[in-house]
Amino acid sequence: MITGVRNRPTDARDSLLAEDLIRVLTQRRRNLSLTRARVAQFMGHETPAAITAWETGHRYPRIDALIAWCRVLRWDLTDAIRAATDRRDAIARRGRP
Predict the structure, then answer these.
(1) Residue 44 DSSP one-character state
(2) What's the pTM value of the predicted model, to 2 decimals?
């Protein structure tokens, strides 16, 4: 079973990227009509608690959990990071925090 960690990125830019990455993964899950419980099941968790904690920002997943999460969502981690960066850049262009 892969669990998350409570540690948050210390650099503000890393923190924003991490938050954007979680957002794009959450949106991807919804677009695929997958529940948190189903993702958790595919990842070997007994309950969706870890997925819920990641998606609500209470924990950040470890890199191995991110890779597994992307695999469940049929997405390469590099593509997910690119989508998160694009999202962050688009928000910056609009002048939002």
Answers:
(1) T
(2) 0.79
CB 35 within 8 A of CB 48: yes
**What pLDDT shows up at residue 16?**
76
Please check whether residue 54 is in contact with residue 61, taking contact to mean a CB–CB distance below 8 angstroms: yes
Instruction: Give the burial class of 7: count Cβ atoms within 10 A of its Cβ; 0-12 exposed, 13-18 middle, 19 or more buried.
Output: exposed
Dihedrals phi, psi of 30, to nearest 5 degrees:
-65, -40
9: left (phi over 0), alpha (psi -120 to 50) or beta: beta
pLDDT mean for each 10 residues of the chain (97 residues): 51 72 96 97 94 93 94 95 90 73
Closest CA to 62 of 83, 77, 84, 47: 77
User: Both tokens of residue 97?
Assistant: 């925090």
